[in-house]
Each structure stands twice: as C-alpha cells, then as structure tokens.
Write a structure and sequence with these properties.
289 residues, mainly alpha, two-stranded antiparallel sheet, 12 helices
Amino acid sequence: MFDFYITALILGLCLAAMATGIFLSMKIFHIPDITTDGSYTLGAVITAICITKGLHPVLTLPIVMIAGALAGTITGIIHTKLKIDALLSGILVMTALYSLNLTLLGRSNVPLLNVKTIFTTLPVFSSENYQQLSIILLLALIIIFSIAYILKTDFGLSMRAVGDSPSMTKALGINNDTMKIIGLAIANSLTATSGYLVSQYQNYTDINMGIGIVITGLGSVLIADTIIQKFAINNIILQLALVAIGCIIFQQVLAFALTLGIDPKLLKFITAAFVLIIVSLTRLTSNKK
C-alpha cells in the first residue's frame, strides 16, 4: 500500500513540469493551450525513438524540449500572426500532432524495457522507488528554480507584464506577439519534458497517453491557485512549488480512489469530476467574497 502512494508521488512529480507549463500559459498569458495533449505525447514519442536507438537519456532531453518548443511556437504563430483564437490554435496543432506522433512512432505502443533510462543513469539507492524518487525530485527542483529565475529577469517580467496589461507593454515597445510565442514555446517544452519522464517511468510510450492530460495539469494548477489566492502568496518560487504540490495531491487523490476498488476504466471520469469540484469550489468562494 505504501509503495502504491510512492508511485503516485513519483508520477505527480513527473507531471509537475507539464503543470508548470500550463501555469505559464494559463496564469501568465491567460491562454488556454490545448497543445498540451499533443506535445506531451510528442515528448514521449521522441524519447522512445531516441533511447531505443541507443542515444543516452540525458542527451535525449534537449531534443525532447526543442520538439515541444517547436509545437508551442507553431501554436503561438497561428494564434498571433494568423489571428486565430488561442483555443482553436491549440486544438489544430494538437490534432496535427496526433498524426505526426503516430507517424514518428510507427505503431501505437512501444515498450521501453531493457533500455537505459534517466532513472538508471546514476544509481544512488538500491530501492527502485527511492532511486526514481530521488532523480525526479532533483529534476523537479531544477525546473522550478530555472523557471523562477527566468520569470524574475527583465525578460520574464516583460512576459508577465504582457499577460497582465498588453496595451501597456505595447506602448512601452514590447512585442506582445513575440512574448506570447516564446511563452507558449517554453510551456510546451516543459510539457514535452513530462512526457519524457513519464514514458521512462512507465517503461512504455503509447500514442494515446496524452489524451486528457491537460485536465490533470489544469486541476493541479487550480489546486495551487486556490492556495495562492487563500494565503496571498506572491513569491514566484513558492507559487511554482505549489503547482508541483498540486500535481502530487491530484495523483494521490486518484491513487486513493483506486485503493477503494474503483474500476480503473472510470479514472478519466474521476479526474474530470475532481477538476469540476475544484473549479466549482474556487468560483463559489470567490463569489462569496
């Protein structure tokens, strides 16, 4: 039973990068980016191709991040340059990515057994769970501090200003379109990183593994946002840490549901219901205030 919740903890940390990407697109740029479903799978697909060909997992990561960034860039260009609604832009790219992912992978499912993964590259613990937890915790901390650092720079402050007041930033000479494109590129690069981690953790890549993943990320961000609003947290590092914690809470809830004997086929339904409850409680609390 303990190992079951450790598994949920590790999976939550694996998805923290994706939730951080959604945090950037939703909370900073106020863009509902559905590209997430496609770029998450893209990260897993690129990972499967690279490590099964013998490429070192560490060297695979930058390739995965670049691929995710390209997906986000395309969404950003469609939205800003072609003046297409952000939601529709994400749906278009997500749909195109499904075909691209299937073409690249060659089949619907690729096992990643007996290959070197990021979790076996630097053995620290004899226990598999603790070994995986130590690696993913280190990567999660690197991502949180890296994104926090970027958001504290002049460039990052400009990105945040574009989301808060695009008319003001335009008057100051900041190119809003470029900032949005870069923001979506970073967000989807992080999402692809989660696909990279989850595929190696689960030891397989499936063409449908990204379906509905945006709901998981959104739920995690909403959990974090509720805490941020409740305690008026302004520190960006704490905000990003809470997003990761939101991912962990989300996965623990799903793990608890499975321990109750709920059919795994209903997991997507439970996910949707849980997000609905979070959104409803957040809105009702805001209305009372």
